[in-house]
Amino acid sequence: MKEDSKKSENVRLFMTVIAITILIFIVTNSTRMLKKPVNLSVAEEGSLSYEEPTTGYILRDEIVMQGENYKNGMVPIVSDNQKAAKEEPIFRYYSNGEEKVLSDISELEKEINEILETTDLKIFTTDILSLEKSIEASIDNIYGLNELSKIQENCKLIENYMSKKTDITGNQSPEGSYIKNLTNKRDELKSRLERDSEIIKAPISGIVSYRTDGLEEILKTDNFDYLNKELLDSFELKVGAVTPISSEKGKVIDNFHCYIATCMNTEKSHDAKVGDKVSLRFSSSKEINAEIVKIIKNDTSDDEDIIIVFEIFDSVEDLIEYRKISMDIIWWKYAGLKISNSAIIEENDKTYVERNRAGYQEKIEVFIMRQNDTYSIIAYTDEHFEKLGFSKEEMSNIKRISLYDEVILH
Asked: Lower CB density within 10 Å: C or N end of the chain?
């Protein structure tokens, strides 16, 4: 009986231990399940921006030039997209009967070159040696080229170098010699071409362009009050279309600055002010600085399209081929420590985050520079603290969020 009683007592003790163990397990795990897990995020370097896509019309300070003999066809003297000084000849029109004169000049140069190849004139000047090196270099450049325009460009250079070499050799030949007489005849024909040709000179210094679209006299830059949505739409221009090259006229463009007009109806555009600094991004992904110089809006409504004109000083030459482009307006862009908006706590008109360092949690005040729907940029610059009224001593004692600090998400 004693043994049965002892066994029964052991069983009860064993069952009690199991019950206590199960109870401890339940209580412990219930506490864990009830305890809310801590989600953490890391403060990182980043940037935020507010951008809007739009289309822009390019307005330039440009002067179109067209001579009286434009129907004869024109010959560029200054290449497209190259700079020219004021009063520098930039192109000319063919003269009447020019084809015959050019043919005679070509025959004379051919005969001169044949004589030079078969006659040892022993004329070796620094200029001739330099031209011969340039000819050889241009010939070498042609090998391996697949682009027709590049091949033609090098062939044109070789032709020009040969002509200059002929000029030097002919001019240094003895008076009365056959080659000298041929050179004189050729020079006389060239002079006649110049006398009979109509040469157009640059009225201002700038970039020469032969791409004209007839809008140069419409899209003026001295006053933007004429701009409106109906006018811009009436041009029916395609975005990104390249302006064709004219065979009758050219123009000189101020390459230091230009303007871009856009028509918009967004909250940001209606809040914009003259003098605001923004950034523009073109299809090349390049961002350039711009300033708003004109805003044209309908005074009777705040919910209509408005015209905004930006002035830019960079990438002017990159836009010469175009009149209408796509672009992004970057209204603002801030860089600094980026944290999730879920970490931000607002209390008593102040903003905090809870920092977690090795399990120790501390509430730190933060100062938000910019914010979007997901992230905020915080800053601790002395300038910002001064605006908030902090003294230098107070600034040195302010606790701050540092790079890679963990913050608690709520």
From this structure: N
